[in-house]
Amino acid sequence: MFTGIIETLGTVTKLEKEESNLHLTIVSNITDTLKIDQSVAHNGVCLTVIAISGDAYTVTAIDETLQKTSLNDLVVGEEVNLERAMISGARLDGHMVQGHVDQTGTCIGVEKQDGSWLFTFEYDASSNNVTIEKGSITVDGTSLTVVNSKKNTFSVAIIPYTYENTRFKKYKIGARVNLEFDVIGKYVARYMENIKG
């Protein structure tokens, strides 16, 4: 379980395919706190640490994960948002994030405002994921508040700290991101589907 508060950025130093799996090696300033078999969210995707060497560690994404996320888009040298699993009893600064990406979305708007940025994302609504105004959404692992919620689009307002300390500073129109919709909203949507059916 995660909070969606990004701790740091890591840099991809190696990508290695093995059958349908992808091994990602990442250098980060939290590597010395990690251990084998620990969960870490990478752009919002929960992956297990399988090896550690110096300031680098390796995780593996299986085919199921690669098909539902944007991890296949990563290249060596690219930064990733990182968050270690939350500690029980600590403050929950974001919202309850599972690290289980529901689907990808595409950035369709970047607007610099007076002291902040407004990013707009589009997603395929056929999977019945929904956002609500002032509800929570996770974009590449970052816990955010939804504004301008529509059937298959939403926007998020980004403060300078988040812009500078996450992948948001790199997003351009067309960028693909991982989306995890609010877990409570997913249960409500499923419940409503069952009532209609």
Task: Explain this structure.
Helices cover 13% and strands 42% of the residues. With 197 residues, it is mainly beta. The strands form two sheets. A six-stranded antiparallel β-barrel has the order 1-2-5-4-3-6. It is globular, with a radius of gyration of 17 Å. It starts with 7 loop residues before the first strand and ends with a helix.
Total strands: the figure is: 12
Distance between the termini: 31 Å
Q: In which range does the helix fraction lie?
A: 10-25%
Q: Helix and strand succession? A: EEEEEHEEEEEEHEH
Rg computed from alpha carbons, rounded to a whole number of angstroms: 17 Å
Mean pLDDT: 91
- Taking pLDDT < 50 over at least 5 consecutive residues as the criterion, the unreliable ranges are none
| Biggest sheet features | 6 strands, antiparallel, barrel
User: What does the overall shape look like?
Assistant: globular
Distinct helical segment count: 3
Report strand %. 35-45%
Major beta sheet, strand line-up? 1-2-5-4-3-6
Structural class of the helix and strand makeup?
mainly beta
Question: Summary?
Answer:
By secondary structure, the protein is mostly beta strands. The chain has helices spanning 63-68, 160-165, 183-196; strands at 8-18, 21-27, 39-42, 45-53, 56-61, 79-84, 103-112, 117-123, 136-139, 142-147, 153-158, 176-181. It is 13% helix and 42% strand.
What brief labels describe this structure?
197 residues, six-stranded antiparallel β-barrel, globular
